[in-house]
Amino acid sequence: MNALDRSIEALGGVSALASAIGVAASLPSMWKKRGNVPAEHCPAIEKATRERGAPVLCEELRPDVAWEVLRLQAGQAQTSGAA
């Protein structure tokens, strides 16, 4: 089972996934068909699945994206914003 399928299962179905991340109900089905989740939706999916106790990481959804760099930059931005 791929990461998107695990996300769908963890959240209770395609419509539930769409609702949890605030997108149209048809989008997750389109992603499944395409075999690719747009990178901008990965953080919301990770957050929603983590809240359900079955986290599916961005790195699993889109291994082609340099998430470690983005996470580092986000952490630095939060640190500098808190100063």
Describe this structure in words.
The protein is mainly α and 83 residues long. It has a single domain, classed as Orthogonal Bundle (434 Repressor (Amino-terminal Domain)). Helices cover 67% and strands 0% of the residues. It has 6 helices and no strands. It has helices at residues 3-11, 14-21, 26-34, 42-51, 58-61, 67-82. α1 packs across α2 (14-21) and α2 packs across α3 (26-34). It is globular and about 40 Å long. The mean pLDDT is 90.
Look up the CATH topology.
434 Repressor (Amino-terminal Domain)
Poorly predicted regions:
none
How far the N terminus sits from the C terminus, by CA atoms, comes to: 43 Å
The CATH architecture would be Orthogonal Bundle
CATH H-level superfamily title: lambda repressor-like DNA-binding domains
Query: Helical stretch count?
Result: 6
The CATH class turns out to be: Mainly Alpha
Mean pLDDT: 90
- The number of distinct β-strands equals 0
Instruction: Give the tally of structural domains.
Output: 1
Content-based structural category: mainly alpha
Helix content: 55-70%
What keywords describe this structure?
mainly alpha; 434 Repressor (Amino-terminal Domain); 83 residues
Quick overview:
By secondary structure, the protein is mainly alpha-helical. 67% of the residues lie in helices and 0% in strands.
Describe the secondary structure blueprint for this structure:
Elements: H1 3-11, H2 14-21, H3 26-34, H4 42-51, H5 58-61, H6 67-82
Helix pairs in contact: 1-2, 2-3
